[in-house]
């Protein structure tokens, strides 16, 4: 599981002004983050605006990402949803040659019980040819994967190898850390929580900020994993305002504004998402300038 230790980056899906996928910009972002030293890439997650992509577009993105990455770092693909049957069908039908793992978000909208969440992920794990990272983000799904459910999955399903934890509940995260199998990874799903999660025994972060600042995010995580928390704290504190700006007017609206200011991609999103408001954009411009 060393492939998923360190800094993962949940990459954006750049769009042109006509809302078509901007593959050239996607290539720039991929090369930017790899050059910055990230350990692995996560494509087609929340930050990739996956709910707005068609089936054909998803496959085109997977193919392009795999070709562009060219085995330089591991790749994780987001395949999740609130229909267990459809998630399993997607895993079976997609061309996943060379992909290293699947990130699957907890079911949203239909708010299953903990037993439902457990059975959902168990069915996915039993059907997936690739290791599965479960994703807990209650602010988006309206249902928390409790520490008990997470640990039950970790102990019973060998193919579930990690959790991306974005609950913001450090006590819950520590309970998972205390009871997990040795090889099960706990990964921060929140840039602001990277430091405390690693301090509690976490394996790193799947970062939004690393789209724009991969070298700095990687330095933070590497220092923290080496117990050099003084240096890690300095970086975390330096980027606190930028992390807040990432989410001040929605994700990935914030990070696309950062990437636009940095000339890495256009500031285009697909409805129902829209670009950040002018005030936030101006603050992001200033933040980028101040961080030079």
Characterization of this structure:
The chain is an alpha/beta fold. It has one domain: Aldolase class I (TIM Barrel, Alpha-Beta Barrel). The chain is 46% helix and 13% strand. The protein has 13 helices and eight strands. Strands 1-2-3-4-5-6-7-8 form an eight-stranded parallel barrel, surrounded by six helices. Helix 1 packs across helix 2 and helix 3 packs parallel to helix 4. The two termini are 35 Å apart.
Describe the SSE topology:
Blueprint: E1 6-10, H1 23-35, E2 40-43, H2 55-69, E3 75-78, H3 84-93, E4 101-105, H4 114-127, E5 132-136, H5 138-141, H6 147-156, E6 160-165, H7 170-179, E7 185-188, H8 194-199, E8 204-207, H9 214-225, H10 229-238, H11 240-247, H12 253-261, H13 278-290
Parallel strand pairs: 1-2, 1-8, 2-3, 3-4, 4-5, 5-6, 6-7, 7-8
């Amino acid at each position: 599981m060393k492939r998923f230790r360190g800094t993962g980056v949940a990459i954006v899906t750049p769009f042109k002004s006509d809302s078509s996928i901007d593959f050239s910009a996607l290539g720039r972002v991929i090369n930017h983050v790899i050059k910055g030293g990230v350990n692995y890439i996560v494509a087609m997650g929340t930050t990739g605006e996956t709910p707005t992509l068609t089936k054909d577009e998803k496959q085109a993105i997977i193919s392009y990402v795999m070709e562009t990455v060219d085995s330089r770092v591991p790749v994780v693909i987001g395949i999740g949803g609130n229909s267990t049957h459809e998630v399993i069908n997607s895993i079976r039908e997609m061309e996943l040659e060379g992909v290293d793992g699947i990130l699957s978000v907890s079911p949203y909208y239909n708010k299953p019980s903990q037993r439902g969440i457990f059975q959902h992920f168990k069915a996915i794990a039993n059907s997936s040819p690739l290791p599965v990272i479960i994703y807990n983000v209650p602010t988006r799904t309206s249902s928390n994967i409790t520490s008990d459910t997470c640990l039950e999955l970790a102990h019973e399903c060998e193919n579930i190898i990690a959790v991306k934890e974005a609950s913001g509940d450090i006590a819950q995260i520590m309970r998972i850390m205390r009871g997990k199998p040795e090889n099960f990874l706990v990964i921060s799903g929140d840039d602001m929580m990277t430091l405390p999660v690693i301090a509690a025994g976490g394996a790193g972060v799947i970062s939004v900020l690393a789209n724009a600042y991969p070298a700095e995010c990687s330095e933070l995580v590497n220092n923290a994993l080496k117990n050099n928390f003084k240096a890690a704290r300095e970086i975390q504190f330096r980027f606190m305002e930028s992390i807040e700006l990432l989410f001040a007017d929605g994700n990935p609206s914030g990070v696309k504004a950062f990437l636009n200011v940095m000339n890495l991609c256009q500031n285009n999103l697909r409805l129902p998402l829209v670009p950040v408001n002018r005030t936030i954009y101006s603050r992001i411009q200033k933040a980028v300038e101040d961080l030079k």
